[in-house]
């Protein structure tokens, strides 16, 4: 089970928006210090910045409405629909390798790059951009691999450990040990009435799922090979996983660990860079180093939900009150993923020939890492952002599938926008 943190000796707490956290010291092998920001000088804005900016990281906020970009000299925030730069912070001290948004509010989680003179990569800063200052900090003995935020929690990912803190007072609540996790794999649910966390387990190919509201831990042996990528649905009840082979993607019920569906990205080994589940869990998108974004039709829905509805799943699922609340079936209003023409010989030919292949595709450069999400303005919209500073908005035919249609392209580091509608 989880290891809880030691009792806190903090005084009265103040909300993040007010900008003050009381100091605290909690000791263990990795964790050094947490508290109000006092050891770092305030950042100096670079008013004479040059135009040569390298992109160090890109990430979506929790509802995929914004992009957070860590650059070699600061960070930038972009709105997705319509696409525009919301604000940027260019600092003299250097760049940030991790920028994590908290929905659309002014609170950010930041981790500096190796070359950042004020904010090293073993520290997490809780930044209030409204006040333009750090309002809390965490210091560790090793490099921070990832940061995740909820409205009530801060999650810090190290190579072998994950720490979970209360957002309001920075109290350490839980610690989780993981297999070596250099990728910083971790994802959270974002519905207010569920708190589900997925992370690597202690065995190769295993995903650990924590249902904090139910005090339930589920270990899912998802693959024979090491886990490379995974994602949760917004309520945390569906988990999609991929291994380092990158050929198969599997979808699981996180309540009982049952496998609901398996789809095939391709036959050749590939690195899957990102996956996303649509808000209505009808679609799964995946990007890989092969330069193609694949879209799959999911055969899962809530028991009793009208499959003709495009609305997000209802309270029966969100409250996690049944281990059998996920009922796999074929959705009648959309096309199915294509199979091999030899799939009728299932059980005779190798499993490859009976695989479910992608329903729709979009082709990109193989030289760039891309991450995917679903648009909020249209239920058939896929958003793609690349480490080359490119943004794409595409649409797909929910009945016929096939090649996605590019609707918009933006080179956001150079501010070049082109609509192809």
UniProtKB/TrEMBL annotation:
Q: Where are the transmembrane segments?
A: none
Q: Domain of life here?
A: Eukaryota
- Which InterPro entries does this chain map to? PROPPIN (IPR048720), WD40/YVTN_repeat-like_dom_sf (IPR015943), WD40_repeat_dom_sf (IPR036322), WD40_rpt (IPR001680)
Identify the keywords attached in UniProt to this record, alphabetized.
Repeat, WD repeat
GO-annotated cellular components? phagophore assembly site membrane
List where Polar residues composition bias occurs: 319-332
**Membrane topology (UniProt):** Peripheral membrane protein
SMART domains, A to Z:
WD40
Region labeled Disordered — which residues? 1-20, 306-332
Pfam families, alphabetized:
PROPPIN
The protein in question is named Autophagy-related protein 18c
Specify the species: Arachis hypogaea
């Amino acid at each position: 089970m989880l290891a809880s943190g030691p009792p806190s000796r903090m005084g009265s707490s103040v909300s993040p928006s007010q900008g003050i956290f009381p100091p605290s010291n909690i000791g263990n092998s990795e964790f050094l210090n947490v508290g109000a920001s006092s050891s770092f000088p305030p950042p100096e804005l670079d008013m004479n910045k040059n135009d040569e900016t390298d992109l160090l990281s890109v990430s979506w906020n929790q509802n995929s409405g914004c992009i957070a970009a860590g650059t070699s000299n600061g960070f930038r925030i972009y709105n997705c629909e319509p696409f525009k730069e919301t604000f940027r912070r260019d600092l003299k001290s250097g760049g940030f390798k991790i920028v994590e948004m908290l929905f659309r509010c002014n609170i950010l989680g930041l981790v500096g790059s190796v070359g950042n003179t004020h904010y090293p990569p073993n520290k997490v800063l809780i930044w209030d951009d409204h006040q333009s200052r750090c309002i809390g900090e965490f210091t560790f003995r090793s490099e921070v691999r990832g940061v995740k935020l909820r409205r009530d929690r801060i999650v810090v990912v190290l190579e072998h450990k994950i720490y979970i803190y209360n957002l309001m007072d920075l109290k350490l609540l839980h610690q989780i040990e993981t297999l070596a996790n250099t990728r910083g794999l971790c994802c959270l649910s974002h519905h207010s009435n569920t708190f589900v966390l997925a992370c690597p387990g202690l065995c190769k190919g295993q995903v650990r799922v924590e249902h904090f509201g139910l005090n339930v831990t589920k270990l899912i042996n998802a693959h024979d090979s090491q886990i490379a990528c995974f994602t949760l649905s917004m309520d945390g009840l569906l988990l999609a996983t991929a291994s380092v082979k990158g050929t198969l993607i599997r979808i699981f019920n996180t309540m009982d660990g049952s496998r609901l569906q398996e789809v095939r990205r391709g036959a050749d080994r590939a690195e899957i860079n990102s996956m996303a589940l649509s808000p209505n869990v009808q679609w799964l998108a995946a990007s890989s180093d092969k330069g193609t974004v694949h879209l799959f039709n999911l055969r899962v829905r809530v028991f009793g939900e009208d499959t003709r509805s495009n609305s997000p799943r209802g309270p029966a699922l969100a409250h996690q009150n049944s281990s059998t609340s996920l009922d796999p079936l074929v959705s009648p209003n959309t096309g199915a993923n294509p199979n091999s023409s030899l799939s009728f010989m299932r059980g005779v030919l190798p499993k490859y020939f009976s695989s479910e292949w992608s329903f729709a595709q979009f082709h990109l450069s193989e030289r760039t890492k891309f991450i995917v999400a679903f648009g909020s303005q249209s239920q058939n919209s896929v958003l793609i952002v690349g480490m080359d500073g490119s943004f794409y908005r595409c649409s797909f035919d929910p009945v016929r599938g096939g090649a996605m249609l590019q609707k918009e392209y933006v080179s956001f580091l150079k501010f070049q926008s082109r609509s192809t509608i």
